[in-house]
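Z., the sequence and structure:
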Amino acid sequence: MVDFIKTQNNFSRGEIAPEFFARDDIAGVAKLENMDVLSGGGLSRRAGLSSVTTLSDVVRIIPFSVGEDENYILAIGDYRATIMGTDGSVVQSLVSPWARADISKLQYAQRFGTMILVHPDYQPRIIAQTASGFEIKSFEFSSNDDMTVNIPFMKFDDAAGITITVTSNAGGNNYATFTTNENFWSADNVGERLYLINKQWVITSYVDAKVVVAYTNSTYTLPESPIADWFEAAFGAYRGWPCSITFHQDRLVFGGSRSHPSGIWLSQVGNHHNFSVGTGLDDEAIFLTLVSSRRQQIATVVSSDNLQILTSVGEWAISNKPLTPSSVDIKQHTSVGSVVSRYLPPQKIEGQTVFVSGNLRDIRELCLDDLGENYNANDLCALSKHLMNTPVDIAYNASEHKLYVVMSDGTMSVLNYHSGLGISAWGKYTTRGVFKSIAVVDNTTYVVVKRGDNLKLEKFDVSAMDDCGNNFDFCAHGLPLRASGHNVSSLRVRKVVARVLNTKSLFINGKRAVLPNIVYDNDSLGFSGDVSITQLGTVKTTIDCPWQIHGSDPLPAQVISVSMYGNYEI
């Protein structure tokens, strides 16, 4: 047997997966639950949850900022969007078009107190503050004096080879009958816009699969032959609506649709309801399609230093500054792919874009190389894949340096991230309930928690020592011991010493650490110094954790180092 003393004073990698237990160059732990890694590399019991209000039917919460000091929570449920104050008060409840099943795909962008929400099956909606409160209304493309609409038009793939024969119609000089050379129309086309003969047309009635009746705003001249050069509105009830949205260089950007998943549409500069490409002047609208050897669907678009386009199979960027119709430098940089089945909003962390990969197992950081020319997609959870269990919501609190990822099983994986200090530590949060959604509003992290049959809006609060009256367990488990470059076959731990800060309750390997009675006074910050447990016995397997720091008392606990004393055999 060989005597040893081993001290760990850096936990900066957080909980790592078991396949890395044989590595002795990773400053992590085998388990980290309901604890955070501090800026100095130590461990702290997480903040508790304080109650905000009880909810009825909320599927998702979204931050909604109207002014510098006017912040709200947008709570979206079944056909209902509720504007709530940060104290949980209901400011206004609005009827919405989205059913519960639709909400996971809602994407949104905000500018000057107005939020626009998009979904591939619904006309975009605007939520804005008015003199009398808040309202929700349909997003409309701007119109011109001749009643034409500044909606983008395009040629869809399934319209290739389709020609239209235009004939007069008994409805009058502004009506025409459109007859295609193949079956093409359906009753769903009624209300859709077309562009041909240098005019916009609205389909007013469906006759059969080859014939529809359309209306234009002025008289027209019948063409002498069938027309092959015609276009459909990019968006509508039949073709679908934008899937993703952002603002970039004072343009409104739509990414992808149900019928054209790889399209990018950018409005005119400063005129966010006008998507007319006009004559291609610098401030006019832009339309482009991602071209690659693989079919891809745009998952979301992100305004960063460049316009970033995250698709199902890779990450693209448009780098032009300014971005004009005549200068569009677009290329694919990486091939990770993003989630398209639901919206997990990419987060800005220390200037980088962080997103969930399409396999729902990676949290990637999209960052430019040293030359500022190419993006890399670094994996932020390479050592902790076991903590990724189908993410359903995500949010970042910059003031805390924490990325929160809500999982489908109701737990939450949390990344304490501070690159300047070398902190990139994953851990798990649990509560006596199920985490459902998360949002950061004015530097405060709010969560929707299902407790029993009740939905609760709660917030993380450093002054809360429990979760709304419910104690929670916290723990950190040490990695299996390696010595002299070898795995240890048997280990006897005689003593474990934890150096603590401002601590009032702590257990080590199942035994309560003895602290001075004075620390339990209300005005005491807690004990700072060394606490220890002795005569702990033998660990016989190489995979067992030699020490455990844990507790459940609603009292503060911080650990900055753990030392083991004992002997081992190889």
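The longest strand covers residues 490-503. The mean pLDDT is 94.

Let me know what you think.
H.
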